[in-house]
Write a structure and sequence with these properties.
The protein is an alpha/beta fold. It contains twelve helices and 14 strands. The chain is globular, with a radius of gyration of 19 Å.
């Protein structure tokens, strides 16, 4: 068991994958000598060389397009998109090529590309650095979309993503990069939780909180605050947005009767809406109240000086819980 920050855990996971498979290589802007903006790839170019840790031009479409070509030749590229809002120049490559080549070739071709994307806000940054674009990619068939919330999951999930035969968007909660946790680096493959399995982090009886990525810590904090008033909230870390582990969420809701989904992205047409619809279908007779959603507003991400008014807070989560309990 080792204690490390989430950013360091991703670094260690990348290192383990590169040591295990010489076909794994990293690509991105300033990821080599600099180690990336968040220093997640620090030291990897020094240890593996410039042929396997490639500093690329500032051209996201070119990065992803090149990675697709390399994957078709047998490599396993891991691309870093420097900030979440910078992924959109590559949107066409991701949604019309990367997502569709396997189906277009009737399974003859696979493109095992991982796109590492810092996601979410809360770092006091400028425009195009704090978006949460997960719903855009989860809506596209052919892409897997996952996001860790702990150092342990960060270490193992990045390796599982690299091993996947399908393209994976690996969303990293950028405001959680420095949060530390215990990582069991000695698990056997069969002991690691499946990549697309949700996990109950805290048991409860009164309502279920579902969160993913950066909002998992928020949900746990809200559950702790609610416990002081005698309310027991169950917290489920979704971990995977596409595919979606509906059954784990449904099992929790059948126990608690109420559901609140927490996300940083705008709630309009977001992941929470899909979860709410699926739970309404599968748990109609177990629900004691309508599903509530807490997240960003239907606005472009605001300036850093007011982002605290945009992002969900413990108080907003608890207010949604109170509404569900009062129904």
């Amino acid at each position: 068991m080792e204690r490390m920050a989430i950013g360091k855990a991703i670094n260690a996971g990348l290192r383990a994958a590169m040591e295990r498979d010489p076909r794994v290589l990293l690509m991105g802007e300033d990821i080599g000598a600099l180690g990336g903006v968040f220093r997640v790839t620090d030291g990897l170019q020094k240890d593996f060389g410039e042929d396997r840790v490639l500093d690329t031009p500032l051209a996201e479409a070119g990065i992803v397009g090149t990675a697709i070509g390399m994957a078709l030749r047998g490599y396993r590229p891991v691309c870093e998109i420097q900030f979440n809002g910078f992924v959109f120049p590559a949107f066409n490559q991701i949604t019309t090529q990367l997502a569709k080549l396997r189906a277009r070739s009737r399974g003859r071709l696979s493109v095992p590309v991982v796109l590492r994307i810092p996601s979410g806000g809360g770092i006091g940054s400028v425009e195009h650095h704090s978006e949460s674009p997960e719903a855009l990619f989860a809506h596209t068939p052919g892409l897997r979309v996952v996001t860790p919330s702990s150092a342990h999951d960060a270490y193992w999930m990045v390796q599982q993503s690299i091993a996947s035969a399908d393209p994976v968007l690996f969303l990293e909660p950028e405001r959680r990069y420095w949060e530390k946790g215990d990582v069991d680096v000695d698990l056997a493959p069969g002991q690691v939780a499946p990549l697309h399995r949700a996990r109950v982090l805290r048991e409860g009886t009164d309502a279920t909180l579902v969160a993913y990525g950066p909002t998992v810590r928020l949900a746990l904090d809200a559950a702790e605050a609610a416990a002081a008033d005698g309310t027991r909230l169950e917290v489920v870390d979704l971990r995977s947005i596409s595919p979606l582990d509906v059954e784990t969420v449904a099992e929790s809701v059948r126990r608690t009767g109420r559901l609140v989904v927490v996300q940083e992205a705008p709630v309009f047409f977001g992941a929470g809406a899909e979860i709410a619809a699926r739970i309404q279908e599968s748990c109609f007779y177990s629900l004691e109240a309508p599903v509530k959603r807490v997240g960003g507003y239907h606005l472009p991400y605001p300036a850093a000086r007011v982002e605290e008014h945009y992002l969900p807070t413990v108080d907003r989560v608890l207010d949604a819980v109170e509404q569900a309990l009062a129904a």
